[in-house]
Structures are given as C-alpha cells and as structure tokens.
Amino acid sequence: MLKNNLFRASFGLLALALASASFADIAVIVNPGNATSSLSDKDLKRVYLGKTSTLPGGVSVVLSDQKFGADTREQFYQKCCSVSAQQARSRWAGILFSGSGQPPAEVGEGKDVAAWVAGNKDGIGYVDSSLVDSTVKVIKVLK
C-alpha cells in the first residue's frame, strides 16, 4: 500500500513538472534598437510563416529559429502559428525553393538566440521568457 501511494505521489509530481515545463511563456524578442514595441498575433504569424519580411511600420526583420527539435521551437510554432515546427519547416522549404524568401536562421537554443538577436540590429527571435535580459527587447509574450 505504501509503495502504491509513493508511486502515485511521485508520478503526480512528475506530471505536474512536465505540465508546467510544457506551458512556459515564450518571449518574442528584438534588438533593443528596433523601433517596434509590440506585435499582434496576426503580424507575428505572418512574419514567421514567410508571408512578409517586415513588421508594421515597414521595419525590416531577419528571423531566427531555435534548433530543430528544441522544445521551445515546437511550443513557439504551436502557440504562434497553430502549426508544428515540421509544418513550418516544410512551408519555408517551399518558400526557399520558389525564391521568394529565406527561412529563419537556425541559431541554436535560448541563450544563443538571445545573443544573436542582441547582435543583429534587424534580428527577431523567441526564447523562454526566463532567459530575457537587458540585451534584448520583448515585443510579445506567448502564454
């Protein structure tokens, strides 16, 4: 009986930890010199699905992605675009093949993306919100 209760309690804690990890807030970040201060869901989706390469007001952006297979990348595309990371990758392959755009630069994971955005005046990316520091500017938080 004690083993069953201990197992259930351990399993419950594990499930709770996984659930909170899978629902982390994702911060969409730009270089601090970027004039944009916020972004609508629709505009973010348009940018990350390759429908436009500028933010409202004509601000050019260079997209970054986390490495393929990263949890934050999968969560971002689900929350931002309602597609899987694989579906977004396939869409970008078509855009690249047609010559009408360049896919996001695959930079690495969270800290790598933040450093890339901080060093790229037109850079935009996304990171787990816990990784945001003063080197980047948050323009949207996906919950």
Short description:
With about 140 residues, the protein is of the alpha/beta class. The protein has one domain (about 25-140): D-Maltodextrin-Binding Protein, domain 2.
CATH architecture: 3-Layer(aba) Sandwich
Query: In terms of quaternary structure, what is this?
Result: single chain
Q: Report the CATH superfamily.
A: Periplasmic binding protein-like II
How many structural units, i.e. domains?
1
| CA-based gyration radius | 18 Å
Which of globular, elongated, flat, extended, rod-shaped describes the shape? globular
Report the portion of residues in β strands. Answer: 15-25%
Number of helices: 5
Distance between the termini: 40 Å
List keywords for this structure.
D-Maltodextrin-Binding Protein, domain 2, 143 residues, globular, 7 strands, alpha/beta, two-stranded antiparallel sheet
What does this 3D model show about the protein?
This protein is α/β, with parallel strands linked by helices and 143 residues long. It has one domain (24-142): 3-Layer(aba) Sandwich (D-Maltodextrin-Binding Protein, domain 2). It has five helices and seven strands. The protein has helices at residues 2-22, 41-48, 71-81, 85-98, 110-118; strands at 26-30, 54-55, 59-60, 62-66, 105-108, 123-128, 137-142. The strands form two sheets. The protein has a five-stranded mixed sheet, sandwiched between helices. A two-stranded antiparallel sheet has the order 2-3. Strand 2 (54-55) and strand 3 (59-60) form a beta hairpin. The longest helix has 21 residues, at 2-22. The radius of gyration is 18 Å and the shape is globular. The model is unreliable at 13-21 (pLDDT under 50).
